[in-house]
Amino acid sequence: MARRWSRDEGEGWPVDDRSGKLPQSQRVKWRQDSSLRDGFQSHVDLVGGYYSGGDNLKSSFEMAYSITMLSWSVLEFGSYMELELQYAKDAIRWGTDFLLKATNSFGYVYIQVGNQNHSGQNCWQRPEDLDYPRQLYNVSKQFPGSDVTAEIASALAASSMVFKHIDPAYAAKLLERSEKIFEFSDKNRGSYIRVGPWVCPSGCSAEYEDELIWAAAWLYNATKLEKYRNYIFQNMSKLEAYFSNGSFSEFGWDNKHAGINVLISKLNMTDTESSHLFLSNADKLVCSLLPNSGTSSASFLQGGLLFKQGGSSLEHATALSFLLLVYGRTLGQARRQVYCGETIVNPEMLTEFARSQVDYILGNNPLGMSFMVGYGNKYPQRIRHKGSSLPSKSIHPKRIDCKEGLSYYNSSDPNQNLLIGAVVGGPDINGVYDDSRKSVHSEPKMYINAPLVGVLAYLKSAH
Predict the structure, then answer these.
(1) Cβ atoms within 10 Å, residue 86
(2) Are 318 and 423 in contact (CB under 8 A)?
(3) Is 255 in contact with 210 (CB distance < 8 Å)?
(4) Residue 140: helix, strand or coil by DSSP?
(5) Which element (helix H / strand E) includes 154?
(6) If DSSP codes are grouped into helix, strand and coil, which group holds residue 255?
(7) Alpha helices in 164-225 (DSSP H)
(8) What are residue 140's phi and psi, to 5 degrees?
(9) What 8-state DSSP symbol labels residue 413?
(10) CATH for the stretch 7-462
């Protein structure tokens, strides 16, 4: 029998890697204030936000996608979160406060703080000890980055709906900024991949049309203004070629295709002949993923994990499980089923698929281990995360410099501190997990964890 998720056995929230002046509600108690001068060398306040993973970088793209997914989790599954709902809202606000700062300079949007020169074996240091100048990267009219800026617009629009009734003034500020950033993204088109390898690792694509339509869909969701609906249908032809090549099943921080189809199908915008594309592609997503659909084209590891290549294989399992749960609810409300050849797929089958992915992540797999730190009897001990691997300030008050920290990086000892609830990158193509700080598969990323929030909340209520 697969193990079921229980809130008492782990927090299950995104990597609580807050940067800046930490609040009293901070649940990772071994962390302290850090990076309190981010942006000051350029006379801009970029303190706060989240480190995107274990290397103390702050990526606006990855952060914005994570905030979009956290917001969608609250909007869709918030009623199942119980006492955790306020923590989710606090986590969203911590990110949106930073995104407001990153978009507060006229003509510039800041997209990264820090660079790879201080990552891995070049520098292994607690965020609390950072005292070197943290390089800033931005996009502008001259050097556009519609993909990252449109994702920021999505995050601000989605989060405005979370705060609409509990803090109307803040929600209005988020929505106003979202509209401005979307206009900036659309008028100054281009991919941030051109900024350089410091902000766009090898996995980035040069495509940005999906982020623009994704942002327009979230703005339509938040405002119900026809101009955003019209924008979607006027620009949807740019995505059709990608859909025909199979991108209808792709979704993550740098690819929004499957998310667009599910979101627009949910928004009841499929009442015209041209919009049937989104609904049919959401159905194709279902048929391509479910192993018992008869038309599946997905790859699975032994034990049933949905697998796509990359250092963060679990990103796909968490993100696509979230989409299937959302689409399952949409199907249920519309009393629809999906026909995959001769197989009829109902919402319950989508729920069970998502449950199978979570069960694998939490330990029902050939390795007999959980990929969530602190969950179960066997879980990752040497995650690629500087703050977790180095002794905390309360244990070792003296500053640890870059080179001194390398002894901890190279050590085979377990990490000094548990980052409870963090899900790591996951197994490789052979189903093997390298429990080593030197492995990209051991790094917990916010964008892996963010979609899992809503999935866990719903499955906890459904079993």
Answers:
(1) 12
(2) yes
(3) yes
(4) strand
(5) helix 146-163
(6) strand
(7) 168-187, 209-223
(8) -155, -175
(9) S
(10) 1.50.10.10
